[in-house]
Amino acid sequence: MIKKTLTLEYEGTYNGEILDLLLSEEEIQEKVKQMARQISSDYRKNTKPPIIIGVLNGSFYFMADLLRAMKIEAEMDFIKISSYRRTKSTGTIRLIKDISADIYDRDIILIEDIIDTGLSINYLRSHFENSHPSSVRVATLLYKKEITKIDTEPEYVGFEIPDKFVVGYGLDIEQQYRRLRDIFAMNLPKDQ
User: Which of 65, 107, 113, 116 is an active site residue?
Assistant: First the structure.
């Protein structure tokens, strides 16, 4: 079997680093379809469609594919926060762009590309619960369960992954490589 790798080629800190394939496009798309079926089933009897809120920028590809695979209608909006510098969490959340939708008494699903420290998702759940929605659920493609300190487990999880920095399918390294269809893992310690 041939091992698929990615060599980073850009003007940045990690130029020349070799990353290993973690999840192929086929694995990702199959999991997205499974998650879409579950969400569609859970919300099919609702009188109002859920509001899907993507956490920018990383969730963009996942959210688009998930919405297209769902069998129910949904409204959508986006929120943008910042908590990372290079490959490490800063430990502080900054709200950069809030949603415009009225979520009072509505079911919302937060769409995350990855949950690792848990800091962002804890902040977001609290932020939205202050607006008194009917429910707040979380769908994440990737989940680093072994290191996460989270108040409430995500309701929809694609893949549990090891504590490695990952790139592709919306996840970036210094704003590069989001466009990749596969997800690759760095072999460097995550805090570099």
Answer: 116
The parent domain of residue 106 ranges over: 5-185
Q: Determine whether 191 is an active site residue.
A: no
Pairing between β-strand 88-97 and β-strand 75-85 as defined by DSSP bridges: antiparallel
Q: What is the pLDDT averaged over residues 6-34?
A: 96
CATH code at 112? 3.40.50.2020
Longest dimension (CA), the chain: 52
For 75-106, write each residue's pLDDT tens digit. Answer: 999 999 987 665 566 678 989 999 999 999 99
Output the pTM of the full model: 0.91
Residue 191 lies in a domain: no
Averaged pLDDT for residues 7-26? 95
